[in-house]
Design brief:
This protein is an alpha+beta fold. The protein has two domains: 1-35, no CATH class; 42-248, Roll (SH3 type barrels). 20% of the residues lie in helices and 32% in strands. It contains five helices and twelve strands. The protein has helices spanning 9-29, 66-76, 100-103, 176-181, 240-248, and strands at 45-48, 51-57, 85-90, 96-97, 116-121, 124-139, 153-155, 158-170, 188-189, 197-201, 205-214, 226-231. Strands 1, 2, 3, 4, 5, 6, 7, 8, 9, 10, 11 and 12 form a twelve-stranded antiparallel sheet that branches. The radius of gyration is 24 Å and the shape is extended.
Length: 252
């Protein structure tokens, strides 16, 4: 019982009500005073380091294309395992990186266009478009501790872990002439589709970026379709309503 003075209960009750209102007001103004017990949406996977794998997810196993299978096989140095695609990845900075798998299914006016990311590949920052995310089973001896995203599993006397990856198509390096003339401002790239596929660790993704279509006239006189980089456009910021909406869009 919070009422300590039974001889004067109503005065005591009024004081407790005022104090509770003050505490609730402080919690609203400063949410960090009492963070929620569970910050993760339903059916999400906490990868550690601020990375969270979010649905939608394939209902059935995905059959990758020939180009994708080649990239996966080279990454694993083994045959392509069965896996399901995931649609979104929450980053440590709070952005949600999406993927072409789901975004290309929607009309252009309803797409948030958050599938372009800055990613570290071979110790160099690259810009890439994410096709999808996946968790692949890899022999425990073949991966580093930093890449382990799941519990150990045993199959046919072999030990396996799951590593979370992103299938990406890397944009070209920026046009050097445009970059120089713009004082290192216009990062203008080409998109090469399946010709530039790579499989990268999900934790190598740094942020969501925007790649804006444009048709510049190069110094050679050629006019071609390209994309220029816009960083920190405010894409993919997490809201409760958005996560509920995307969960409802899930395939499983």
């Amino acid at each position: 019982m919070e009422i300590r003075q039974p001889s004067n209960p109503f005065s005591n009750l009024t004081f407790l009500a005022i104090r509770r209102c003050q505490i609730n007001a402080l919690k609203v103004m400063i949410p960090d005073l009492e963070p929620p017990d569970n910050l993760l949406p339903n059916h999400s996977v906490n990868l550690g380091g601020g990375y969270v794998l979010l649905r939608a997810r394939d209902r059935y196993n995905y059959h990758p294309s020939e180009a994708e299978s080649r990239v996966i096989s080279e990454f694993l140095d083994a045959p392509v395992p069965k896996f399901k695609r995931w649609a979104r990845l929450r980053l440590p900075n709070g952005q949600v990186a999406r993927c072409a798998w789901k975004e290309t299914l929607k009309p252009a006016e309803k797409v948030r266009m958050a599938r372009n990311v800055k990613v570290t590949i071979n110790d160099r920052n690259e810009i890439a478009q994410v096709l999808y995310y996946a968790q692949l089973a890899i022999k425990a001896d073949d991966i580093n501790d930093n890449e382990n995203d799941g519990e150990l599993e045993y199959h046919d006397d072999e030990i396996y872990r799951f590593v979370t990856v992103a299938m990406v198509s890397v944009y070209s390096r920026p046009d050097p002439e445009l970059l120089q003339k713009s004082m290192q401002t216009v990062w203008s790239c080409k998109y090469h589709g399946d010709e530039a596929l790579q499989l990268v660790s999900a934790k190598s993704i740094q942020s969501v970026v925007a790649m804006i279509p444009h048709r510049p006239k190069l110094q050679s006189g050629v006019v071609e379709d390209r994309f220029f980089l816009l960083e920190k456009p405010g894409l993919g910021l997490v809201t409760v309503d958005e996560e509920v909406e995307d969960e409802a869009d899930g395939d499983e």
